[in-house]
Amino acid sequence: MGTDLNAPLGQNRKARPSKPQKSAFSPGRVLLGVGAAALIGVSAWTVLRPTGLIEPTPAAETVADAANTAEKPENGATATGRLTKPQTSGALSGAHVKETLTNDGSVVTTFSPKQRDGDGPAFIEVGRTKGQDPRMTAFPNDALLEDAPEGRLPITGPDGLRPMDQYARPWSGARGTRIALVVGGLGLSQTGTQNALRQLPPEITMAFAASGNSLERWMQEARRKGHEILLQVPFEPFDYPDNNPGPHTLRVGLDAKKNLSELHSSLARITNYTGIMNFLGGRFLSDADALEPVMRDIGRRGLLFLDDGTSAQSLTGTLAETIGVPHGFADMVVDTELDRTAILKKLDELERIARRNGSAIGVASAFDESVEAISQWADEAGTRGIEFVGVSALVKDPQQQ
Fold first, then answer.
1. What contacts 137, CB < 8 A, 6 or more positions away?
2. Which sign does the torsion angle of CA 54, 59, 61, 63 carry?
3. 182 closest CA partner among 279, 320, 40
C-alpha cells in the first residue's frame, strides 16, 4: 500500500488472484443436512406419539366398534375414517361428550354444549328448599297470599310453593332423634308472650291464638328470632257454650259456608305461619261432615294441620290421610300440671318416646312455669344429642311420600 494517509480505504490495493469456487454439495454439507433431518424427525415423533395420559381403547373394543361402524356408518363414522363414540355425562349435564379414536390409537375427547329450547336466559334448577331468607322472615311472600272479603289469606303459589314450605324452620336433615315442641296461647297475654319470646330458644315452634292481641307485632318478632309459627283456630268443644274458645269459633251447627268464613277470618289475622293447630274443638273435630270441608280448604292453601291430641274422638288424622293434607298429632301435653318438676318429668317422658320412635311432638301453653321448664330442659336435651325441629319437619306430608 502507499503511504498517502488521505487515500480512500480499500483503494490502490493490489488485485488478488481468484480462487476456484467450491461445490454446494460437498460431502461435509451433505452429512450435516442428513443429521439435522434425523434430529427433526426424532423430535417430531416424540411430540406426536401417544403420551399415555389418555388410555387408548383396547384392541377388542376397537375392532368391535369398527365392525359396528362399518354396518352403521351414520352412528359414528367420520369422513376421514376415524371412529367416534358419543357419550352422555348424566341426565343433568349441560354438555355433549364425544370420544374420537384417531389412526394412531389415541383417543380425543370433545365437549360441546347441548342445544336448548328457546333464546332466553338459561336457568339451573337446584331443587326447592324449605325456609326463608333470614333477612326476610318477618315479611310474607306476596305470591302466597290472596285477597278475600275477610282479608289476605294464605294460598299455594302458582309454582306449587306452599306456605308450609316457605315459612318452615330449616333443620339438619339428619336421621337422629328429633323433637318438636309447640308453645301455644301466644297473644292472649302480653306479658306471657313477651316472656316466651325472651326465654324460649328459636327451635321451639310458637302457636298464636287467633283471638289474641297485637298478633302482627308478635309474629314479626317471633320470626326474626327464628321461630316457626302456627295459628291456633278455635273449634267447638263438647261443653260449648259454657266453654267458649272465643270469636269466630267453628261450630257443628253452622253450615259449611259459614264455617269457612269463620275459618278465613282467623286465617287473615297474621301471615308467615306453616299451618293450623286446634284451640279446643273436641266436638267439631269428631264430626266428619263439619270437619271435611275445613280440612279440604286447609290442604288447598298449602297448610299443615296439627292436632293437639287432647280428643280421643278426633277424626283429623283419618280425613287428612284421605284428602292428602299434611298433618300430625301431638304425642303429649307436657304441662297438664302447672308445676315445674311435673313438667320436667313430662319432658323426660317425651324424650323417651322420641328415642323409641325416632321423633316426638310435645305441646304446652305459654304459662311462666311451662316456658321456664322448657327453656331449661331444651338446653340440657341438646347436649344429649336431641335435635329440636319445627313441627313442619315431623308431620306426615303426602308430597314427601
1. 167, 223, 224, 226, 272
2. positive
3. 279
Residue 315 grid cell: 277424626
DSSP class of residue 214? Answer: S
Per the CB < 8 A criterion, the answer to whether 229 and 272 are in contact is yes
Give which of 182, 177, 218, 217 is closest to 200, Cα–Cα. Answer: 182
Residues 97-123: tens digit of each pLDDT: 677 777 666 666 766 666 655 555 554
Query: How much is the pTM?
Result: 0.69
Question: What is d(CA 331, CA 358) in angstroms, rounded to the nearest whole number?
Answer: 12
The residue among 318, 228, 222, 303 whose CA lies nearest residue 264 is 303
Q: Strand pairing partners for 148?
A: 151
Chain-centroid distance of CA 193 in Å reads 32
Residue 65 exposed, middle or buried by CB count within 10 Å (0-12, 13-18, 19+): middle
CA distance 301 to 305: 11
For residue range 205-235, list pLDDT tens digits in order: 999 999 999 999 999 999 999 999 999 999 9
Interstrand relation of 304-307 and 275-280 (parallel, antiparallel or unpaired): parallel
Q: Which residues contact 103 (CB under 8 A, 6 or more apart)?
A: 81, 82
Q: Which residues contact 28 (CB under 8 A, 6 or more apart)?
A: none
Which burial class, exposed, middle or buried, applies to 144 when counting CB atoms under 10 A from its CB (0-12, 13-18, 19+)? buried
The DSSP call for residue 178 is: E
Q: Are 50 and 106 in contact (CB under 8 A)?
A: yes
Helix axes 368-382, 190-199, angle to 10 degrees: 10
- The structural domains of the chain, ordered by start, are 59-113 (no CATH), 134-400 (3.20.20.370)
367-385 burial code (b ≥16 CB/10 A, e <16): bebbbebbbebbeebeeee
192: helix, strand or coil: helix
What CA–CA distance (Å, rounded) separates 68 from 62? 10
Q: Which residues, other chains included, contact 380 with Cβ-Cβ below 8 Å and sequence gap of 6+?
A: none
Cis peptide before 241 (omega within 30 of 0): yes
Confidence of residue 131 (pLDDT cuts 50, 70, 90): confident
The three grid cell numbers given for residue 71, joined into one nine-digit string: 354396518
Contact 333, 360 (CB under 8 A): no
In whole angstroms, what is the distance from residue 383 CA to residue 386 CA? 7
